[in-house]
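Rather than argue in generalities, we have chosen a single entry, letters for residues, whole numbers for local backbone shapes, without further comment.
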Amino acid sequence: MIVRLLLLILFASGNLWCIEPQRTWTNLNGVKMEATLIRFKKDKIEIKRGDGKTFTLAPTMFSEEDQKYITEARERTDS
């Protein structure tokens, strides 16, 4: 019963958690950062660096390749 309640709260929160490997992200200015995609938060993503610092950013801040990766990751979590 408690597990069902926790799952309900998780899904009702609107946050989609995902398990993705650490990768190199590149912003539109060419600046690179090693981080892991943690979750989707409405129209943004949350990524986490190796030092534990997290960032919530719009996918449009990233390179075209990274935006494609984000779209594919979202599709994997939706299925």
